[in-house]
Structures are given as structure tokens and as C-alpha cells.
Fold this sequence. Notes:
By secondary structure, the chain is mainly α. Helices cover 70% and strands 0% of the residues. α2 runs antiparallel to α3 (67-91).
Amino acid sequence: MVLSVETKLKYHHWANLKLLQHIKGLKEDVSAKEVKSIFPSLSVIFKHIYSVDSMWLKRISGVKASILDAVNWILRKRLYKLLNSFTNNTNS
Length: 92
């Protein structure tokens, strides 16, 4: 069965809402708590999801990503790492 783009987008929206509802029910400090994973915390995971969603929305909409978009994405990832390491160092 092949799903339409609209159906896929509706599912994606539903899944993101479910994740956000779950996280909303967690204690406040959980989103910044370091975990053993590719992503060091829940907040970094959602920053990544937002970045990738933005990139794919541009592509689906026919907007060509410029080299600046690619560089911005790389720099944003490095910034998240830096901010997370700073947060972890100040909480120790």
C-alpha cells in the first residue's frame, strides 16, 4: 500500500503531537537531562527534529537548499553540542 504525501504529513503531525504530549507530562528537568544516546538530551532531539523537518519542508515545497542552508544546518548542530556541553558543565 502506497500512502499519499498528505497522509504521511498527517501521520507525521500526529506523531509529533504525541511526543510533545508525552514530554509535557514529564518533570521539567527531564528534557535537559543527559542520556546515553546519539543525542545527549530530549531537548536536543527536538531541536534536531525541527531542523530536519524545516529542511524537508523546503525540499517538498520545491525550495532548493542553498549552500548557506547547509552551512547553517551544520553550524546549528555544532551550536547545540556546545550549548549542551555548557549546560552539562554548569549543572555539575
